[in-house]
Amino acid sequence: MDRALLRKYFIMGSQNCEREPVEILKEAIEAGVTIFQFREKGSYALKGQAKVNLGRQLRDVCLTYDIPFIINDDAELVEILGADGIHVGQDDEKAEALRERYPDKIIGLSVSNMREFERSPIDQVDYVGAGPIFGTSTKEDAKVPVGTAWIKRLREELPNTPIVGIGGITPENAQEVIEAGADGVSVISAITRSNDISKTVQSL
Ligand code: 3NM
Question: Annotated Gene Ontology MF terms (predicted)?
Answer without folding.
Answer: magnesium ion binding; thiamine-phosphate diphosphorylase activity
